[in-house]
Amino acid sequence: MKIHKFDAHGHEGETVGDVAHRRIRSDIVHGRLKPLQKLKLDALKEKYGVSVSTLREILNRLTVEHLVTAEGQRGFEVAPVSQDGLRDIAELRILLETHAIRRSLAEGDLDWQGNVVSEHYKLSQVEKTLIGGNDGMVEQWVRQDWGFHHAVISACESPALMELHSSVFDRFQRYHMLVLDFRGKPAADEHQQLRDLVLERDADGAVALLERHVRSGVEHILGTGRVP
Question: Domains in the chain, ordered, with CATH?
């Protein structure tokens, strides 16, 4: 079973291994398992309730996604983060997301437009709270940020593109979760502008704004001094 943040709640039909994979993946993306942390199989076995053989399979899958690194005979550890790594994954996100935006704007229907408006509304309410001084909602903002950007490209009619974008977005989002710092009104204004450009079907404008938006986010994350 493919695990994405946009899967329906409930995860019917999951095996114990599927559940463990989702939990470990989420713990890495959300910073509960820290960069370079050793992933000791005995401890993971107790925490996630699966066998060592299942854990090895899960960690090998996460290695393919660049969320875990294998150390040969020494085992596994959470993948590192770096400034170059953030810039690299940001450029890949831009490449995928701008292509998906163009396709989505060409194919999207009225229901898609409504979903874009709905997801932006939810994101904007969290952003208003953050701008008002409630810093405790940054983690929720990261989730709503995903929801809005996913909604924008959801009409691209390419499951393979959506799956790859989801994986790349997770790796980008991981940096946000490690610094937990909101860029403020500029980010909120860009989201509103992106919503408007999308509804106007202005593909060139939306793509140009998205590129600036992601790169500004990168500079903000690096400006916190929390990425080695």
Answer: 16-78 (1.10.10.10), 83-223 (1.20.120.530)
